[in-house]
Design brief:
The chain is an all-beta fold. It contains one helix and 31 strands. The strands form seven sheets. Strands 2-1-24-23-22-21 form a six-stranded antiparallel β-sheet, with no helix packed on it.
Amino acid sequence: MRSSLVLSCCSALALILAGCSGSQAAGGFTPQPPAEKNTLHAEATREAQPDTAFGIAEFTTNTGETSAIASDGAGHEFVGAEEPQASLLRFDEQTHAYQQFNLPQPAGGPYALALQGTKAMWFTSGNVVGSMQLVTHTFQEFTVPTPSAAIEGIALGTHQSMWFTEAQGGKVGRIRTDTGAISEYPLPTPNHPFGIALGQDGAIWFANYQSIDRITADGQLSDYPIGQNYPTGVTTGPDGAIWFTGQSDQNGGLIGRIDLNTHVRKIAKFGAGTSADVGIVTRGSQLWMTAPNANRIDRYDPSSHVVTRKPLPKGFSRPFGIALGADDQLWFTNDGPRGSAIGKLCPDQSSQTCKTSP
């Protein structure tokens, strides 16, 4: 895994509520939350037994080192593959066949994917932000100004823009989808920006070193600390709030929430010395997460605070990216000792039906 986070296996679940608030003016990055909102409060929760009802299907590919996945909303999943050559795979939900499109100037990855409507699929690759047109399958690639930026996450923003994180460059960047013009916004140290998503407030939210950060379309930054915890994936949840995954201060996994109005944070920690969850996506009223080092897909129910775990079959057991397909099933990338596979999790079907149904 490219992130510096250390991932191991998940165990007992303890919910910790961290309520705090913070913001700052443009150019600054010094949050000053009220003292009374820095207190941690414990809340009872529980962990479900491994769920065997979820159906699982896996479709092998002739590629390796897959991590990024995104749906085009029209019956196809796009997957980033690093080996044997950096490429995009276009997987058909109906036929289970895929096409492979090699990047013109591969520089690693693709590490993350983001859809631009019906026009293009955007990706990150080393120091490059690029796109592939959905109709013509032609590529465009743009090199960011910062050397060795190690671009990771990417997300569609407002005003014809894509936003991305520079894990080693210590910046968050924006590229205009119409002109290719790039802007970069330095972050204070320490930093390690990773996952990124568009919030319902029109701002971009991203995981950073021990914080969830927010940047507006005009470049105003805000920082929301989450203690000694390290977030990874970010998404908009079923309630419109920002939800995130990561590694807790107990070296275990976490799932967290930040309210868009109050900016109060809540963090559910998954025990000590266990595997962090990374990818995260919303389906219905629940959140689904990947645990790369624990061979699992996890489901979190915000109403009951219950985590349900789905072990993966042996052979392909390192899920990373996860996306909701047009078929309302969960699609994920999965590497293992037998190579790579595109995985499909069907919450309401058996494994046999999941494998054969379009």
